[in-house]
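One record is set out below.
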Amino acid sequence: MKSFLLPASLFLSLNLTAQTEQILSDPRVNWAAEIELTLPADPLEYSANEDRSATLAVLKLNEPDRSMGGYVNHSLNAKLWDIAENGEWEAYSNAELTRQLDNDELMNIISGPDTVITFDPETYEEKVQRVYDMRPSPHESRFIKVRQLLTYNDEEATFRVHTLAIAPFSGNEAPRFWLKVPETANFDPDSMFIRPDVTWAVRYITNVSSPRVSDFQVLKDETGPVIDRFFDRIMADTTVDLYTNANDDEPLREDKRACVFSCTDSVSTFDPETYLEHVEIFHTELLPDQIVDLQLIEELYWQDEDGLIFTRLVAVAPRYKFYYQEGQWYPRIGFYRRCDE
């Protein structure tokens, strides 16, 4: 296999975190890139106000209502607010985690007042007035932004994600701070239903927020263009299971699988006036350079006891442009590759 390695000097200039460096040094990781997703934060609020960024399904929401008002904030941002206020995770001003915020800076961002200076043209006096920021607090933001490392294992032809940073996001202005997600041990998702400390778990399917191939911020490259290499693997090796739907129990049969990448079919039409049948033959083909983005199906789990978040990538689906009329298209899924098998 041909290797495409980045110079060591470039890696040094990226100012990578220790967690990222450890992942990149894993020989099973042949390609890696940073991606950024926008996801709904509150599974209950989302059900009333659906958003095109991603769809969401609740896997577990087990927070007992002990409040006098009978209301519990189920938004992940409410948990991030507590984490930030208590200083439990490192806070940064940017998603790349290159400038850390001290406690005073962070407190000023999430709850501190600001000052406005006005000038009186008659008295020539400056007046300093304290005002409070009326922008949404982190726990009131509708979305989260997650900075993730997407990795590819060529031997298994499969992807994984590692969440590096997370931020409350209003949907308009840029996140006001980012929290560095602590490193976590491997997590067994099947155990979440019997673990009382795992109280919040959701499954996301990215739509508009699906990471575009052209936007990948590649940090490690032993494969060349990763979509090309991924297609080479799955087209040559029929033991790599593909699915029509991520929830299917059985993978595509060999004949159906071949038709995903290259297929000739026909459509028959009948003219009731001439009694003639017209057969139109057409050919479809799915090539790596047609792929515009990867739809991700991933799950997030929140563990209360230690205040930790876990991420699992369930499946990826390469999407291509399907034109339904001249100049108009929508992303269509070619197939699913499960990543949790």
Remarks:
- The longest helix spans residues 76-86.
